[in-house]
Structures are given as C-alpha cells and as structure tokens.
Write a structure and sequence with these properties.
This protein has a 6-stranded mixed β-sheet with strand order 3-4-5-2-1-6. It is built from 4 helices and 6 strands. The longest helix has 19 residues. The two termini are about 30 Å apart. The chain is globular.
C-alpha cells in the first residue's frame, strides 16, 4: 500500500493526484505513439518542479497531436490547464508547465541536442517506455 497520501507537492496539491496526472500524461503520449517516454522524479535535485516527463515524436504533426492530447486529458482528469506552454511543433520542442509536472515534447534531433536526461541524471527514473 502506498504510504505517501499526505505528501504535499510544490504547489500544495497532494502527491497521489499529481502522480495520477503524470501517469495519465504518459498514457496519452503512448496512445499518440510518442517514443522514448521518460518520467523523472526531480524533487530531490530541483526546486523548479516535482516531475519531468520527456518524450519524442517523429513529425511536427505528431508533436502537435501529443500536446493536444495532453491538454485534453489534463482538463478531463484534473480540470487543469497548463500554466504555460513554450515552443511549438515546428521548433521541435514543446514545453508544457503544469506546476508540479513539466512535460517536454521533442523531435529526436532537439532531444539529442539538449540532452535533458544527462542534465538531470541525478533524478530518480520512475518510468521509461521505449
């Protein structure tokens, strides 16, 4: 049984609600055929957020579909809208900020270039779907 129900997140929400949304986002990415999905717990190594989700898409159209799918699922699941969205599919990197969760949607070239996995190598890998 999970003993973390009362752990607050950075925004003051509860842990189970946040991790449920993170897992729902991972499911949406997988449903949209996103690749190399990574869920990182960065609470111990960063003050900016609790979780990073990274994924890759092979085309602008797929990157856009992943973004739209995440927005729709977050709205339905948790009645949340992103605090901020940076980038667009044409740039190869979309960042979606949900406060406790930050989602990075990359084209493979940009993901390799920015190499966030190495930058956050101290983070706990909660899930990797390849």
């Amino acid at each position: 049984m999970l003993q973390c129900e009362m752990i607050p997140t950075r925004s003051g929400g509860d842990f189970l609600e946040t991790i449920e949304l993170a897992r729902r986002i991972v499911d949406v990415i997988a449903d949209k055929k996103g690749e190399d999905i990574l869920l990182l717990d960065i609470r111990a190594v960063s003050l900016i957020t609790d979780y990073f989700i990274l994924c890759s898409g092979t085309s602008e159209r797929q990157l856009q579909a992943i973004q739209e799918g995440i927005e729709e699922a977050a709205q339905k699941t948790s009645e949340l809208r992103p605090w901020h969205i940076e980038g667009e599919a044409a740039s190869g990197w979309i960042l979606m900020d949900y406060g406790d969760i930050v989602v990075h949607i990359f084209a493979p070239r940009q993901r390799s270039y920015y190499d966030l996995e190495s930058l956050w190598k101290e983070a706990h890998v909660m899930l990797r779907v390849q």
